[in-house]
Please model this.
Amino acid sequence: MPELDRGLFGGIFTRGGADTSDAAWLQAMLDAEAGLARALERAGLAPAGSGGEVTRAAIAADFDAAELGRISTLTGNPVPGLVRALTRKVAGPAAGAVHRGAASQDIIDTAAMLLARQALEAATADLEAAAAAAANLASSHRGTVMIGRTLLQQAVPVTFGVVAAGWLAGLDAAIDGLRRAREERLAVQFGGAVGTLASLGADGARVKALLARELGLPDPPLPWHTERLRIIDVATAMARVTAALSPVARNITLLAQTEVAEVQTRAHAQAHAQVQAHAHGHAQVQAQVQAHGQAQAHGQAQAVPRRGAPSAMPNKANPIAAVAILGCARQVPGLLATLVASAEQEHQRAAGAWHAEWQPFGDILRLGGSAAAWAGDLLGGLQVDTARCAANLAAAGGLPLAEHVTALLATALGGPQAHEIVATAAARAAASGLPLRDVLLAAPELEGRLRHAGITAAQIEAALDPAGYLGSSGEFVTAALRAHEDRQAPQDRQPRW
Amino acid sequence: MPELDRGLFGGIFTRGGADTSDAAWLQAMLDAEAGLARALERAGLAPAGSGGEVTRAAIAADFDAAELGRISTLTGNPVPGLVRALTRKVAGPAAGAVHRGAASQDIIDTAAMLLARQALEAATADLEAAAAAAANLASSHRGTVMIGRTLLQQAVPVTFGVVAAGWLAGLDAAIDGLRRAREERLAVQFGGAVGTLASLGADGARVKALLARELGLPDPPLPWHTERLRIIDVATAMARVTAALSPVARNITLLAQTEVAEVQTRAHAQAHAQVQAHAHGHAQVQAQVQAHGQAQAHGQAQAVPRRGAPSAMPNKANPIAAVAILGCARQVPGLLATLVASAEQEHQRAAGAWHAEWQPFGDILRLGGSAAAWAGDLLGGLQVDTARCAANLAAAGGLPLAEHVTALLATALGGPQAHEIVATAAARAAASGLPLRDVLLAAPELEGRLRHAGITAAQIEAALDPAGYLGSSGEFVTAALRAHEDRQAPQDRQPRW
Amino acid sequence: MPELDRGLFGGIFTRGGADTSDAAWLQAMLDAEAGLARALERAGLAPAGSGGEVTRAAIAADFDAAELGRISTLTGNPVPGLVRALTRKVAGPAAGAVHRGAASQDIIDTAAMLLARQALEAATADLEAAAAAAANLASSHRGTVMIGRTLLQQAVPVTFGVVAAGWLAGLDAAIDGLRRAREERLAVQFGGAVGTLASLGADGARVKALLARELGLPDPPLPWHTERLRIIDVATAMARVTAALSPVARNITLLAQTEVAEVQTRAHAQAHAQVQAHAHGHAQVQAQVQAHGQAQAHGQAQAVPRRGAPSAMPNKANPIAAVAILGCARQVPGLLATLVASAEQEHQRAAGAWHAEWQPFGDILRLGGSAAAWAGDLLGGLQVDTARCAANLAAAGGLPLAEHVTALLATALGGPQAHEIVATAAARAAASGLPLRDVLLAAPELEGRLRHAGITAAQIEAALDPAGYLGSSGEFVTAALRAHEDRQAPQDRQPRW
Amino acid sequence: MPELDRGLFGGIFTRGGADTSDAAWLQAMLDAEAGLARALERAGLAPAGSGGEVTRAAIAADFDAAELGRISTLTGNPVPGLVRALTRKVAGPAAGAVHRGAASQDIIDTAAMLLARQALEAATADLEAAAAAAANLASSHRGTVMIGRTLLQQAVPVTFGVVAAGWLAGLDAAIDGLRRAREERLAVQFGGAVGTLASLGADGARVKALLARELGLPDPPLPWHTERLRIIDVATAMARVTAALSPVARNITLLAQTEVAEVQTRAHAQAHAQVQAHAHGHAQVQAQVQAHGQAQAHGQAQAVPRRGAPSAMPNKANPIAAVAILGCARQVPGLLATLVASAEQEHQRAAGAWHAEWQPFGDILRLGGSAAAWAGDLLGGLQVDTARCAANLAAAGGLPLAEHVTALLATALGGPQAHEIVATAAARAAASGLPLRDVLLAAPELEGRLRHAGITAAQIEAALDPAGYLGSSGEFVTAALRAHEDRQAPQDRQPRW
Model:
């Protein structure tokens, strides 16, 4: 199977298993037509062998998408041209089985469902890998203390484990949605001109059921030409993927900032390895560099490509996977809005609103799928720099624990006095650059008040220990991991949406 | 209970049971604070009686929303001001139970969930009423033949029953989503400053569970400060309501057009009744008119208000309920997009993206709820003019059945000849204004060819009977009604969404 | 020049002059690189001949977009791969002029501006043609009376001229916006890694100006890497195109409804001509039909393709151009929202928000351009059926003029009495099916009251003449046409947008 | 004038001069009605004194918005109820001047334009203040060197001046758009039932012009009931405000991060001052603290409220203004999408799409205005910590200048060798924590190669000076400031938008 041509921007936005290219759409439409021919044959409404014959002719590569596109200017969609071309390819009586009973919308909507099935399955697998990586991070960094941040300001400590557990919960919810959409919201579309299947007489509903079986899609109670919740539900499942991933990617770009540096993405890791290779003169990498250099003797100097590393800036290690996820995620809300707005469809076939769905539906499958594919890279390659986490906490000089110290003092002194003492000390600490501990324990008048209240230096120091102010972090990690594991034993699964 | 002040535009956009006014938000925040005080008391972390005392003080009417709004300019959200005001109201030791362990986000998010619960329940009830009306229409108009329309052009016949069955399927899917969101996606929010509940030491997770029980909300495995799929899922459930209703409302505005007139909305019905009253001189209505007239002797003439009837245009009967649903529905996609985009939240509390959710979340609850409330009016009051349906079909002169006649002829003559004969006849019919039947059976050369092929006039006439070209319409109505009934017996319910 | 491959859905959504295919993007990027090489040469920063050499190598067809897409997975965008490939193609010292001083964003943003220029110009030309057609309709149907409709209900009369004048005003406003965007909001992007052009030392600003001159784009005061109003403004100009066209297309689908039939689109006209050809046995068309028939002896019957005409339904004439415009227009709001949201960009280059612009920006150019191209077809081919307009008015039996009659009576009888008489009469007319005139003048007690008030039958009949109740329609047509003509004499142009 | 009740969330989202409350809408509708009465009087169509009488009655506080809201459930909008109530308040013949010739849409659309005028003017003034602050920052920090960042990674140096100059350019473009919308895109709406002003006979266009003059709004060539570009253009002007501000606010949240700390917002400054006050025992502040403490003896400890400072976390100084701007900005794209989508309006009055505009239009005025109001606070209060900027640069150990050193070496050694030397040195520097300078000049084999190439230590050190690698930063600041000043001399203004 040849590698998918993902196009100029495809390296970022067309990763993963969702193929929504013209070729994929065309094949899915042909699969729908072929399935119909087989269903008609099974129903006794087409000659024996028709189904196989149409199926054998229904190969996208044998059709000219550009030509179909041109014809659609006259017909309003590419199906009439496709039907004509397919009919010509099928010699003999089987031609009569082509498209019988169907309307263009039956073919395009069913094709959309076939593309959705593939995309949902691929995204589920990719997101499962990402969730496994998140679970691993949650578990292995259960005790990695770091500063928590609200409104981008340092607040009080958290653990990397509980952060990753939060990511895991989002990923699990997104996976559940993908599974539900796959299992419950796909359906064959087959209703003919106005949703009655009139041209099939009394056989319509039976052919619909057979078509559903041929394609492995659920058979809905009735056609859904202008009832578009299925389209919205598949799109929403993909939007939930990017909604679960966008905070993960956003946080990783923030944690990977040069000034924060608490995580390294795979790019960082690669860059670091390469930096090491340079430093230690690894022969292989140097050879590559030289080969490049010679090949471009008159051009710009260009290093061995590594993900996220601009050649001219050795200090940089761009978190490409996170950036790509954010780039995908930010395109999704608008597309989802288009699809929800397109639900307002007229009578038995919409004048425009249906047409407006085709490309956004493909785009949202593509972008959700790409984000899911990047997520595995991102989380699988994430390295937490625990030393840096600790250093950043230490550099805060105890101020993030002021709340904890206040609570300690309040038990002896009451809230207002406790607050006043700590606020005064914190202010001095901030102004002087001294650790809060030193201010509290070294300033005679403060130290005196504390001693008077029966608060010991050891108590103060314990209150200033970040590892002692993590509340229920451990329990939360455990709960998220347990919920994750429960999900994977579907027989016990509680409905969770 | 005083009637809700719904505001200047509220008659249209704030119907139904969802109250997302400032007063409702304030009460929900206070309910969250009160629930927390009770939970702390149960956990042994607050003095006996604290919970009751805080609960008694937590009455929205006793707080000044405008003042809280002003304070929030300094604090970034209204909770700190609310906590201060609530603390002041609570005398004695119970004050220590106010807001203990909580962050502002815990209160606002939990309040959002409480508002969501009310809104989801109200919308479910309203939509059930609308679905019942749709089921009734599907059932009683199973045999009402009307012209089907695609791209706003007449196509082939359908029944009103199968149209209403399609609406029913959408409504049922929307109700399922509301139920799922209500049962599976609500949750208490309680995590403190950074999601660890550190200030509660080892008691955090236990208080969280108790708070959930106090408020009747599910207890999530861990706080979800920056994992926002719950917000999105509730919003999506509401967006699915408007997505299910918008095609219904759109179609009713189209069917109610003066030139089509196949349905009358309640406004029509009222207008008709009033017209009759005028015509027949009903004393009461005339008295009302006169009373108005005298009261406004120098003003404009103004009739008794009836829904949708502009006083100056007796020919008009505006389908207000349908218009209101469309007005609600068209605001929803943009709001949903805002909420999905807001999922990209930083670290342990977002700088802006969280804040951006508050009003759109309330708006989407309000608009989805309003649309659901209008839907009962719309479908409950819908009258199908079966005579007009038949007349519109008859006026089409048989052209919508040309496809059926072609199929009949093709059995004897083959497709191409059949098509040519019918196309010729249809062209003549269109050009002359004669019914297709007359052209087919009266033109000697056509009549001759048909006779030669063994096609009888009775066969032609049967093929031209709309009631004979309805395909699986009846089966589809049955299937939709059965699916609707199955839904209502939850013990047998199959997962469907 | 080979015809553009517009793809499977391109017949609908990729018409017009905007080319935003991968090939077009690639060429625009290469044009930016070539322009830079020439600018560097002019600035004395690259060897003589470099500019020409790079320009000659910068031919998109010689590059492999798919390969560049694959490389971009490592680099985050396709430019580094493109630069490497281009450098390889340029032998000798000119290679040093490739990409010198530039960052990837400079190339992609400048390429976007080049694509925008082409798209804005093409859309302007297409929309001018549509506006000319609208002006022609406004002028030639200044006196064509038809029923006006509000909330899809018949109201009081309008002229087709004033309807078209309203369309014209919207089109003119959209054209103004396209011109402004073209003239004022395009700009070269050139800032290097962080917007300082540091690697060019003191020469940066000068090279920027030379690059702008080479490419024929304005030279902005400073780079705009994370100031994205230009992107938004171009996108908005296109969104205004679809916002001006969507009501036109919507109204035409409504007026073309089988039951209304006040306009025919080109499809209708074609269909009508074909129907006539069938009816009168035109040899050529019949031959075509037969040829088709024979070619598909075993297949489905398929008529000669004409725009909008499904083969099986001779009664249908789908308004494809209007449907296509609506299909384009409905995709635009979501894309615009994505671009506006993407303005939130970090520091000197955004992590995701910039990347999220690439495809939506291309899509909005493509869709706005397609809608503009369809608009010429739609308005150029529109035929107003004045007889049907008159017939629809007549069928309303005078009810739309009730307001006018009331005003007449009020002068003699006062508002309340006038209103009561007309309401009574209108109710009787509606109930009986009689024209309002007959009810008013034939019912003895009404006729008596009117006579008593000195109102003559001739006055009543005049008040019931639609042509006498058109208010300022004529003046409004004149004003819109004058504004349209003023626009086309730019020297006199007042700022209008 | 009483302070505006901005509601519970209003401190964040309802700042600035735009009042879009129910009361403001009601007054604007009444202003439109009053203006119409005066216009009718001037036109000789209403008795002398009518205009004054209606104007005196048109006081919003005398009407019951909630009651009007309830009535609108029957009428589809609040105007019929308002007209009835206003008519009742006006005794005598002036009552006949109320609403004469108008449709509800005329009143609501004109009211929207009046609200827009106020909002555009207020936002312009607020944004001018913000732009002045940005200009001041650009000018005074022209020489403040700081690290530039791309994809949130340190890259090469910039100046704070050029960063602020970029902000200024965006703000200026946004102000231009506000002015244009104010001057060119507002218009009175007056067309009567269907846009013909039929009920005013030949006087319609004249009354329209007089109404425009009374209200100080432009007089459009014809009514624009279903041509909605004006609504979109006003909304876009506001969306451009938030699009210009969102990157500013985003960057300030990033620069204010605890770990970066290159700027302090007013909150920081206040917090710092307070910390100092605590530290130095300022009597007044301590008194406040004590007063609070005593008042809340049993409650939680609560500090003097200062913007952005959570009482329990002395280390935090939340950038509230920036967060508020982001919170406003993120709601705008979805609202704009709703308004653009609502342009698809039917015939002479839309069934739903018009109604869907009312609240989003008000919301976008409100949010754009709030963001503009916050922007003055944000930029006016911004303090740049130049020492911290320098320290952050120094901490990077010269790596951001590696590109510059490479360029220096390339002149003597050619690109590939230069690149290799610097890459090796950078890798060692990163691995060892030594400054790049030390690695380059201290490592014998590197130092030897450099000496051999004639590169001196002084040259290396110069290349490593950030102040020497700023390219055209100064010119760009000058250009942006000049463009800003040119804008303020409107007589010389070139079209720029």
